[in-house]
Amino acid sequence: MNERKGEVFSIAAENAPVDGCTVSKAVAEVGGRRISHFALAAGTDISPETYDYHKLWIVMDGEGEVLGERNAKVAKGGAFVTPVGQPVGVKTEAGIVYTEIETGKEHKMKLNPGEAFALKDVLPYAEGRIVNKDIINEPKLKFVLMSFAAGTGLSEHAAPGEALIFALDGEGVIGYEGKEHTIKAGENFAFAKNGAHWVRAEKPFKMALLLTLD
Asked: For position 2, what pLDDT does the model report?
């Protein structure tokens, strides 16, 4: 995964729009599925295109309008699942940065395509518990939402692939290779394959975990 590992960073800050341009940056390709960051400058657009699989867009900064059979407004903290077999594009008057995750043709997205929503609102907090919800669950690509009640956490472990965290709500602490990192909503963190890490929520915390497997 083409992200620096082991420190808190901002996808939005590192992929700022270029005046008058649309820019894309490939992050990873797993089993033919691409993960990319897009940055559209104010007044630009990507024309509607049709695909036979879903794409998940996670808006990191700015705002825009999804162009399709039913136009939808999206903004920082929001998300959108593109429908299959329908032309979909995006335009922005103020500028927008978003991450795009492609799924496989056989994948059934566990979110409603064609509707804008906030990822942090997809799952609740539960007192004293950690709540998980799989959004993409493929052999080599997983995208999971997690909510941590205050005082909960995950013990140190290592994942068999590279991972990218999207902090969605509140604040958490990530331990990685012996160091602690505080992460807040809107920030990101990446793990190398087999990197030892843990998560602690001293306050309520929600995050999304993108995991790519060999």
From this structure: 92
Domain span at 50: 11-119
Q: What is the pTM of this model?
A: 0.96
Q: What is the pLDDT of residues 85-99, one digit of tens each?
A: 999 999 999 999 999
Task: In whole angstroms, give the CA distance from residue 78 to residue 118.
Answer: 4
- If asked whether residues 24 and 93 sit together in one domain, one would say yes
- In whole angstroms, give the CA distance from residue 189 to residue 195: 12
Co-location of 125 and 198 in the same domain = yes
DSSP for residue 83: P
Of 119, 148, 167, the residue that ends a domain is 119
Task: Compute the Cα dihedral for 130, 136, 138, 143 and give only its sign.
Answer: negative
Q: Using 70 as the pLDDT threshold, list the residues of the chain that sit under it.
A: none
CB contact burial 36-75 (16+ within 10 A = b; e otherwise): bbbbbbeebebeeeebebbbbbbbbbbebbbbbeeebebe
CATH number at residue 206: 2.60.120.10
Q: How far apart are CA 8 and CA 12, in angstroms?
A: 12
Burial class for 158, CB neighbours closer than 10 Å (0-12, 13-18, 19+): exposed
Same domain for 52 and 141, yes or no, is: no
